[in-house]
Amino acid sequence: MTSTFVIDGVPGRLVTTATSNGEVGHVDLRAGTHNSTLAGLTDALSTAITTALRAGAPSTAFVDAFRRTRYVPAGATGDPHVPHATSLGDYLAQRLHHNHPDGPERP
User: Fold this and answer.
1) Most buried in the list 17, 22, 24, 61, measured by CB within 10 Å?
2) Are 98 and 18 in contact (CB under 8 A)?
3) Is the pLDDT of residue 14 over 90?
4) 3-state secondary structure (DSSP) of residue 107
5) Domain of 37?
6) Helices (H), 3-103
């Protein structure tokens, strides 16, 4: 699934793929301009999450860890399914939960 967003003027894209049993298998978060610090950080975050998922970590661990984190960029996202995020991590968590719900609805 591919989602695009703009948070506080920063465009981004989140691509997630699912395994055959419907669980998140890969996360690719891109934001900022090529070779920027933000682009490097989102690339590192994507790699860390994907590596952990492949090692058996549940996606709920990332949803729970990143939900409601607060740092810039933050604000309206332009994404109808996730209209507001308190950070890129919060956007990622909300989108993971929306794209790949796991278990009962989280608050």
Assistant:
1) 24
2) no
3) yes
4) coil
5) 11-72+83-99
6) 37-54, 59-66, 88-99
Average pLDDT over the chain reads 91
Tell me the CA distances in angstroms from 15 to 4, 50, 52, 65, one per residue in order: 9, 12, 16, 19
- Residue that is written with structure tokens 């929306």 in the block: 98
Q: Which pLDDT band, with edges at 50, 70 and 90, does 102 fall under?
A: low
Q: Count other C-beta atoms under 10 Å from residue 47's C-beta.
A: 13
Backbone angles phi, psi at 100, to 5 degrees: -135, 70
Residue 5 lies in a domain: no
Distance, CA of 85 to CA of 77 (rounded, Å): 7
Q: Which two tokens stand for residue 78?
A: 């332009």
What is the total count of domains within the chain?
1
